[in-house]
Structure formats: C-alpha cells, structure tokens
C-alpha cells in the first residue's frame, strides 16, 4: 500500500512514518517544508533515521502551495493519507495567527482538494485536545460540543474538523480527525514541556510553571499515539458515525480522541523528571497563561469501541524512555 505522510519530519509524523516503513507493507512518501518554528536540525536528524528505510522517500514541499502539493499527491496516488503537518503550538498562535491560517486552514484545504482529485481509501488528519475549550466536561468525549476553543490554534483545528465533515458529505471522501492529547516521547518537540523542563533542570535554569503547576495534562506516550493512528487508518469502516439524524451518510466522517485517560498535575510531572535526571528543578510559580486549559483528559470510549484502542504505556515508563533519548540527543547535539 502507498501511504503519504505530511509533516513527516515532525515529531508524530516521524514516528508514524518509521512504524509504517519498518512494517515492510508500505511505500511511504513523507512531505514536510522543514520550517523553522523549531530548529530544523532536529527535523533533519529525524529524517536521517527515516531515510535508512528503503521504502521511505522524502520530498521537501509546502502543502500551503496548492499546485506543488497537488502535483505530488497526483503523481503518488496514495491509498492512504496521514496528514500530520501543521503549525502546532498553543502559545505561538496568540501572536502569529496568520501562520496557522496558512498551514492549518489553507494547507488543509489543499490536502483535501488533492484527495478529492485522486481519492485515497482513507485520509486521517491531526486535530487536538485544544478543540475542547471553556466549559468542556471531564473526561472530554467527542459527542460534547466543541465550539468554544480557548486558543487560536484550537480554533483552526476545530475549523479543520468542520471542513472535513463537509468534504466527506459533499465529495464522498473517507475522512477521520484524531484529537491528540499532549504527546511526549523520544524525538519530542523542543517547544513542549518535557524538553523545556528537562533542559531547565539539566542546565540549572529557572523552570516556569504556569497556573502554579496545578494544571492537569493527559500525557500520552508516542508509541500509543502511533498505535491509535494506524489502527484507525487501516480499520475498515462503513458508516458515518458523525452524521446527525437525517444527514446524508455519503462517506464516513469521524472524530476520535487519542489520549491516555490518566491526567497528571504538571508539578508532579516535574518531580518525575527530577528523579529521572537526578537533579532538582529551580521552580518559578506563575499565574495561568491565556489560551491554556486547566485540565485535559481524554475519554477513550469511542476509539475503544471502534478499533479496540487502549493506551499501554504508563507515564513512568514513557518518561524513562524519553529521558534516555533526551540525554543522548542533547549531549550529542550541543
Ligand atoms: P511538529 O511541529 O513536530 O510537526 C509538524 C510538521 O509539519 C513540522 O515538521 C513542520 O515542518 C511541518 N509543516 C508545518 N506546516 C507545513 C506546511 N505548510 N507544509 C509542509 N509541512 C509543514 O508537530 P507534532 O507534534 O508532530 O504534531 C503533529 C500534528 O499533531 C499537528 O497537526 C499538531 O497540531 C497535532 N497535535 C500534536 C500534539 C502534540 O502533543 N504533539 C497534540 C495535539 C495535536
């Protein structure tokens, strides 16, 4: 099978591409524009690992360029598309909204238009726990309203879900949105808490804890995310689970959470890192940041019922694997 993975040089795209390429059952084409939201050296290091697989190929391209991306999709004619490329990050979206419109709205539309011209069997795309905004009930379940995002990033992800829903119905495309919950693990993003905190602890610099470290996050290990993505991608399905009564079910349009369902206070997360790194953090307690959610927790009932997904990695084990990679990568690359 031919699988096109966008954002293949990114954190999750790298892991999904690696798993697919290592399976031996897939020809994987990775697309990424290698933007400098965070150091491209990390993206190139991930790609170097992927390029060791003979069934992985990479093209540097920007999917906000409709002609360039459409040409790549048309040439490859993928059976499956895993769309993981995006402008990520909650805080950055406050000052840089245009970057989110370009990649997450215009870019997403280009990905759907390319799929419309040469339909894959299934296209899955990354959404986010950030779509659950003010007033969402814990645990977050997919059937509650998600129309009050607290960040602009969350608003663009919710817009993607709505756009996908309309494309599934109008054009008969099989589209599934995956709401990921705070993903961590080896090769993780340098703008996210695990790397930021581990650097601060290692370098004995102040570690800033917003909301005084009392926010709860449903940290989800990368291997569990990959498992969920591939289970959903390849699972045969026939019905439109997201259709309202009376709405045509021309093609499936679905949304699933992929999380851990075990939220942990961020200050406890820091204590676990201190133990693993063998150093105390210099903690600075700060008030909540705009756009941040006080708690995230995924209900996994829907994805469990549909594809049997269950997260397998306890935070202790996943963090130990993350810290092992962190020490090796940051010692080697500094
Ligand atoms: P990432 O930033 O590491 O990866 C995204 C990749 O997309 C980057 O390599 C970037 O260069 C590429 N990209 C961005 N705009 C592009 C464009 N216009 N054309 C081509 N490539 C482009 O992020 P990630 O953590 O791997 O996240 C993957 C997806 O999952 C994103 O959609 C993100 O919003 C979503 N998500 C991630 C998390 C998490 O905790 N990591 C949580 C919820 C949702």
TrEMBL record:
A matching Pfam family: Epimerase
Keywords: NAD
Annotated signal sequence range: none
Domain NAD-dependent epimerase/dehydratase: 3-238
SUPFAM superfamilies: NAD(P)-binding Rossmann-fold domains
Name of the protein in its database record: UDP-glucuronate 5-epimerase
Organism: Termitidicoccus mucosus
